[in-house]
Amino acid sequence: VGGGGGGGGSGPLTDEEVAGRARVKEQVARSADKECGICLERVIAKGEQFGLLDACDHIFCLKCIREWRAVGELDKHVKRSCPLCRETSGLVIPSSFIPDSKDSKDQVLATYHDRLNHIHCKHFRHGDGECPFGTSCLYRHEYRDGTLQRHEAPRLRMDDEGELRAVGHVMLSDMIGIPR
């Protein structure tokens, strides 16, 4: 992710694709001296990709920010927040450069969403499974006949900590205390 133009076909690149690739090369070059806010090393010099957070513009190695979010002992709100500013971010987006504007970051995010939306969700399994991420899942929820799952507004409830939680399908076993 973090790429510019398409160029996925076998024909020559369009002027727009050439310009897009030039913009990406320029942004990669401008990102060369950027340091990770966790390990304090230059990300590109380490041979790493950047891990962009959707809610802030702090700079991290993809590996460092993923490790930060994977620490088991941390509260889930801490794990989902930026280690520097504590803004909650739902996504870590891999990128070969640091976007130089909001529009550029939005384009990286859109490209990432588009890429994931073409990969079938391993939980949904063409309708044979149930995705625990519901409408938040970025992967493709496609039935065997090729139709896509309709996303209805989630049913929500408030938990003991005041957090809104999506409510899954209610089953009879839920009503009579039988574990699923």
Automatic annotation (TrEMBL):
<keyword id="KW-0808">Transferase</keyword>
<dbReference type="GO" id="GO:0008270">
    <property type="term" value="F:zinc ion binding"/>
</dbReference>
<dbReference type="InterPro" id="IPR013083">
    <property type="entry name" value="Znf_RING/FYVE/PHD"/>
</dbReference>
<protein>
    <recommendedName>
        <fullName>RING-type E3 ubiquitin transferase</fullName>
    </recommendedName>
</protein>
<dbReference type="GO" id="GO:0000209">
    <property type="term" value="P:protein polyubiquitination"/>
</dbReference>
<dbReference type="Pfam" id="PF13639">
    <property type="entry name" value="zf-RING_2"/>
</dbReference>
<feature type="zinc finger region" description="C3H1-type">
    <location>
        <begin position="115"/>
        <end position="144"/>
    </location>
</feature>
<keyword id="KW-0862">Zinc</keyword>
<feature type="domain" description="RING-type">
    <location>
        <begin position="36"/>
        <end position="86"/>
    </location>
</feature>
<feature type="region of interest" description="Disordered">
    <location>
        <begin position="1"/>
        <end position="22"/>
    </location>
</feature>
<dbReference type="GO" id="GO:0061630">
    <property type="term" value="F:ubiquitin protein ligase activity"/>
</dbReference>
<dbReference type="InterPro" id="IPR045072">
    <property type="entry name" value="MKRN-like"/>
</dbReference>
<dbReference type="InterPro" id="IPR017907">
    <property type="entry name" value="Znf_RING_CS"/>
</dbReference>
<dbReference type="InterPro" id="IPR001841">
    <property type="entry name" value="Znf_RING"/>
</dbReference>
<feature type="domain" description="C3H1-type">
    <location>
        <begin position="115"/>
        <end position="144"/>
    </location>
</feature>
<keyword id="KW-0479">Metal-binding</keyword>
<feature type="compositionally biased region" description="Gly residues">
    <location>
        <begin position="1"/>
        <end position="11"/>
    </location>
</feature>
<dbReference type="InterPro" id="IPR000571">
    <property type="entry name" value="Znf_CCCH"/>
</dbReference>
<keyword id="KW-0863">Zinc-finger</keyword>
